Amino acid sequence: MKEREPMSEETKEIRGAVTSGTEIAVESGGGEETAAPALPDALPVLPLKNTVLFPHLLSPLLVNTDRSRKLIDEVLRSPQRLLVCAAVRGEVETSPRPDEVHRVGTVMRIAKMLKFPDDSYRLLVQGVARAKIEDFIAEEPFLIGRVRRLEDVGDIESVEVTALARNLVQQFVALVSSSARLSDELQVLAQGVEDPSKLADLVASHLDLDVAGKQELLEELDVRSRLERVLAEVSREQDAHKVESEIREKVQTDIGRTQRDYMLRQQLETIRQELGESEDAETEVERLRERIEAAGMPEEAHAQATRELERLAQMPTAAAEHGVIRTYLEWMVELPWQNASEDRLDPEEARRILDEDHYGLDKVKDRIVEYIAVLSLKRDLKGPILCFVGPPGTGKTSLGRSIARALGREFQRISLGGVRDEAEIRGHRRTYVGALPGRIVQGLRRARTRNPVFVLDEVDKVGTDFRGDPSSALLEVLDPEQNSTFSDHYLEVPFDLSQVLFIATANLIHPVPAALRDRMEVIELPGYTAEEKLEIAKRFLVPRQLQQNGVANAGVELPDETLRAVIASYTREAGVRNLEREIGALARKVARRIAEESASGPQRIEPADLAKLLGPVKFEPEVAERTGQPGVAVGLAWTPAGGDILFVESTRMPGKGELKLTGSLGDVMRESAEAARSWLRGHASDYGLDPEAFRTSDLHLHVPAGGVPKDGPSAGIAMVSSLASIMTGRLGRPDVAMTGEITLRGRVLPVGGIKEKVLAAKRAGIERVVLPARNRKDVEEVEAGLLEGLDLQYVGTIDEALQHTLQGDA
Ligand SMILES: Nc1ncnc2c1ncn2[C@@H]1O[C@H](COP(=O)(O)OP(=O)(O)OP(=O)(O)O)[C@@H](O)[C@H]1O
Ligand SMILES: [Mg+2]
């Protein structure tokens, strides 16, 4: 049920009160309001805050001040039970004084009264007539005024008045049905009123007007002008409603993240239409028709678009579906059905561009140049689908961008990390509110060509859940056999993706579903050695960071030693992302120094300045330094970021033969440590040790390095080496790292992650790596060039291993 507007504190709803109040007998006085009864000269005046009452109408009133209660009590004692209700001017806090009350009011008769336990009175009052308060003859205990009845003026039988009244009924009925505020009963009520003056008052009392506005209508005695003014108000209110409800209707409420933009656009469009800024429907349809023709769609798409256009033409612009179809057609005409960029088919030039953007990475560059060479011979070549796999910051994404530049194609990139919903790839069906095409089609629209280089970042991080499997949609995207007819749920017609050069990237290849892996040509970007990083920094990162931080021409010098120190002590990574960040930090520090101290002349940053500029060393670089005392061995760990070195440290103290392990080691790693000690103890004499020494001393083995996951058996060798070193006092060899599982019988078993481990060793400046003999085949899979300068020693037993890892003789 619709609620009427609330009244002021003194005059509130009486509805619903009947059940809880005590009715005071008020005789129904003298029949209905027919002939105008004579008014007494003086009547009590009840000031009303926030409301104006009109004659002829029944209105509820709430009375809860002392003063007003006295007034009502007095009125009830009079035979006619009449009073004048008059609106208060403006804001009044206390009991209004005579000059704060409007002089035109309404004479009302109390029809019913309920007394409530809290002493408030709820009244039903019946309007009798307009009245003028000539003056006030008393102010206490309540206002009493001398009143004169005000009669309507003008000919209420005139044609104009009748026409106006009829019109008003119609408009008001329409307003009521569109308004949530007005009760539907009012329609019947208004249609039943024959007297134009009463009609105007009835409608006026229900308008959404402030007190001043209503007071004006009350004071208008000419019926015709009152009707006109009320009518004008009704249309104004109706217009306001219309705008409101149209916007509300067209803008659906279920707003998801991707739908937000769409919603806003719909609103904007609606507002435009209201402002008359939108083009008219016919021109719009024509314009779309032209664009459909110009878009060069294949037959099926063209037929579909034309069909939708015909539907659009038939549909009123106000229909909710109108916007949906128009948005759909906008998508269709904006897609690059035909438009393709001309490839630059010059392998040499391409190579030059690729070299301009990235140092090294020859394998990928060769592959691209080769593709271009073949493409120049066979134009309709399907693009290879490449997948760059490697640790973060090794240039996978930026290489994609460079390839686009080399080929002269547009570049697009989407990140698939965390994508769980198939619809993100393939779009939502149009029946879905705020539906949009998937990200592939969105990317193509942005590219404006059908043959961009399209990087699909993080294919290894695609998720699967109840919303469907995005990787199955990716399968279709990446399958050269299928992707010429890729179907997006939103478009409903196939789009040809075969000219797109897709490049996927991943940090790890294993999480990529096998079916997807099989469709791609995997190219590894394993990470850079310290020397390669130095080159990348000098040629790319330093110039770029100086430029970005506005000190390109400030004479900043970063000598090789400084860059080497940054690489070794402030970064530990396979890629160069943190290196670039640190260089950026240096550039900013220098920029600030220049600005603050207005330093001029060359700013040469020495390695010694780094601690001041970048803070304390973040990574202990010096393997040699750490291995400078007994008990230290360098292990190798596999990490998702590409492998890392790991120190194993032991100390020995007098005790009862206990082995203490720290560094949050996993169970398997702890067992390796036990095995290492047992083996060593069993072979004590081979190493010139007294077996008793194990009983009389406690050993403590610790593996620092917080960031590396420490479990698995592969640190076995490093543990034996560390313990052997501390027990024998022989130093570990500097620049030797090792990996391998051990058995109690002294054998060395193969382990995983060999490739990442040897590359990590190389990055750390290790010269020799001790590996299980049976891992030789894994090393052979690593590109030879990457291992240049690394001495690899394959061992089958612990004894052999210790020969390489410990200095001096047994
Ligand atoms: N060989 C290189 N030569 C020049 N700059 C490089 C090279 N490798 C990486 N970079 C630079 O390193 C930064 C990081 O590269 P990019 O964002 O392409 O890494 P990514 O392999 O995509 O990493 P992620 O796996 O984290 O996405 C870029 O600024 C890039 O230009
Ligand atoms: Mg990337």
Concise overview:
The protein has 810 residues and is α/β, with parallel strands linked by helices. A hairpin with a 5-residue loop joins strand 22 and strand 23. Helix 2 packs antiparallel against helix 3, helix 11 (347-357) packs antiparallel against helix 13 and helix 23 packs across helix 25 (716-728).
Total strands: the figure is 25
For the residues shown, what is the average pLDDT?
85
Biggest beta sheet attributes: 7 strands, mixed
Q: SS-based structural class? A: alpha/beta
Write structural notes for this entry:
This protein is α/β, with parallel strands linked by helices and 810 residues long. It is built from 28 helices and 25 strands. The strands form 6 sheets. A 7-stranded mixed β-sheet has the order 19-20-18-17-21-24-25. A 5-stranded mixed barrel has the order 2-4-5-6-7. Helix 6 (223-250) runs antiparallel to helix 7 (259-274). The longest helix has 28 residues, at 223-250. The model is unreliable at 1-34 (pLDDT under 50). It binds adenosine-5'-triphosphate and magnesium ion (MG). Residues 396-397, 457, 505 line the site of magnesium ion.
Question: How do the strands and helices of this protein lay out in sequence?
Answer:
Elements: E1 22-24, E2 42-48, E3 58-63, H1 66-77, E4 82-87, E5 104-115, E6 121-138, E7 144-150, H2 159-178, H3 185-192, H4 196-206, H5 211-219, H6 223-250, H7 259-274, H8 281-294, H9 299-314, H10 320-334, H11 347-357, H12 362-377, E8 386-389, H13 396-407, E9 411-415, H14 422-426, H15 439-447, E10 453-457, H16 470-478, E11 486-487, E12 494-495, E13 501-506, H17 514-518, E14 521-524, H18 530-548, E15 556-557, H19 560-570, H20 577-597, E16 603-604, H21 610-614, H22 623-626, E17 632-637, E18 644-654, E19 659-662, H23 667-682, H24 692-696, E20 697-702, H25 716-728, E21 736-738, E22 741-742, E23 748-749, H26 754-763, E24 768-772, H27 776-780, E25 791-795, H28 798-805
Helix pairs in contact: 2-3, 2-4, 2-6, 4-6, 6-7, 8-9, 8-10, 9-10, 11-12, 11-13, 18-19, 18-20, 19-20, 23-25, 25-28
The protein binds adenosine-5'-triphosphate (ATP) and magnesium ion.
